[in-house]
Amino acid sequence: MTAVAGAGPADAVALPWHRGPRPGTFALRRGFTGRAGQVVAEPDPDGRTVLLTVGLGPAGAATAATFRRAAVAAVRAAGPARTLRLDLAEAEGGPVPAPARARAVAEGAVLAAYRYDRHRSGPAQPLTEITVRTAHPEAVAEGVAVAEGVCLARDLVNSPGGELPPTEFARRVAGLAGGPLSCTVHEGEALIALGMAGLLAVGRGSAEPPCLVEIRYAPPVRAREVTLVGKGITFDSGGLSLKSQQGMCAMKSDMGGAAAVVGAVSAAVALGLPVGLRALLPLAENMPGPAAVRPGDVVRHADGTTTEILNADNEGRVVLADALLLARDPAPDALIDVATLTASVAHALGTRAAALFTGDEALAAELLGAASRAGEPLWRLPLLGSERRHLGSSVADRANASHRPGDAIQAALFLRDFVAPETPWAHLDLGSAAFNEESPHDETPHGATGFGVRTLVELLRGAGA
Ligand code: MN
Ligand code: MN
Asked: 0.90 exceeded by the pTM?
């Protein structure tokens, strides 16, 4: 793959495509072996453009991820350039069809160019225009739509908690409504009427009121109906079960599930996917204010069952319980909740993968396949029934207790209590993967990752096929 990084406006950039990397040209002279991700740069004599050559590895071995990461390498190597043109080499054969290559390159380029620099006074991201030269512009548009959904989720997650309380999150989501996408924000009395006792209990400790956002996407043709539920704790202090200073630092990211759902819905609309979608986002700020829910308080859910709040920092499962009950009617063909539910999931999977919990084999296969195609590492963990014993309460039907080890499994079992048994349901725990506290890697920046968007879009794309 070749890329031209230019310092001038797009139409002023010289396009030396005809001098591409052929055997015997500069690329080989400079030690270019073609290894995947390798980049060599040759400044043009005019001083305005730089020709980058990006390796794709052995012919025939490249996957979509290879092309995505080649685009990432080009964007990273573009430095201070304002424009970047990507030209896909005419690879012969290989397992990745040309449209998929174009899509992966576009997706990787947009994901790599992402910056969250709203609060920086220094110079912004210099790169303002990326062009992909291809015979498949529709595939480029697809890749851009998916990547923009990821970037939308990243922006929401990166936004400081004080800047994005539940009502502001809801306002931003409502701004996406139009055409086949509608949005309702339930707040105040409406939450009581809907039986959102858990959401109200968790939100009580904050000066910022909780709300529940309901999104519907109803295209004219719908292959099936999918309901998505996203945990939206806009900031999690732990409530009265206050977190440590260190444990609280990245807690603006505790709405990473809701953000991933919003990003996926937005991409599904942009792609016109023929799938009916309902998204439920319980949004609250978990704070230790004077009205905060106390350990020992009991919440009565809409189904009449009760939960003793033993750990105010296990608020996610409590707000999700309400949303999962609401998701029962109308019954969807598939129900997927996405949540930064437990930090402990990282003990099993590290910090670059998320966990899948489901008892439905078909949905498990669909989600694992979608995640694999999307390039998001997703691993299935078991819903071990024996772990349910840690959710016992001496005064209520269950407790939101936390027992290590096994906390991620116990949290998933807690959620299962609220799902209609006949509904195919899956739970994605992003507690490990929504926020990258380390250096950037591949297409993942530091900070918000947007994890989950690409898997959900890929799943919905398959569902509509
Ligand atoms: Mn918490
Ligand atoms: Mn939380």
From this structure: yes
- 2-113 folds as Leucine Aminopeptidase, subunit E; domain 1 (3.40.220)
Instruction: For residue 314, report the distance from its CA to the centre of ligand 2, in Å.
Output: 6
Tell me the domain boundaries of the chain: 2-113, 148-463
Of 95, 91, 103, 89, nearest in space to 138 by CA: 103
> What is the overall mean pLDDT for the chain?
92
* d(CA 91, ligand 1 centre) in Å: 49
Residues belonging to the active site: 243, 317
What pLDDT digit, counting tens, does each position of 200-249 carry?
999 999 999 999 999 999 999 999 999 999 999 999 999 999 999 999 99
Question: Which ligand gives the minimal distance to the CA of 402?
Answer: 1
Q: Rounded to the nearest whole angstrom, what is the distance from the C-alpha of residue 254 to the centroid of ligand 2?
A: 5
**How many angstroms does the Cα of residue 103 sit away from the middle of ligand 2?**
34
Ligand minimally distant from the alpha carbon of residue 238 = 1
- Tens of pLDDT, residue by residue over 249-307, are 999 999 999 999 999 999 999 999 999 999 999 999 999 999 999 999 999 999 999 99
Determine the distance separating the centroid of ligand 2 and the alpha carbon of 304, expressed in angstroms. 24
The domains spanning 2-113 and 148-463 adopt the same CATH topology: no
Q: What is the pLDDT of residue 28?
A: 53
Report the C-alpha gap between 203 and 210 in whole angstroms: 5
Q: Which CATH class is domain 148-463?
A: alpha beta
Ion ligand 2: residues, CB < 5 A = 233, 236, 254, 316
Which ligand lies nearest the alpha carbon of 255? Answer: 2
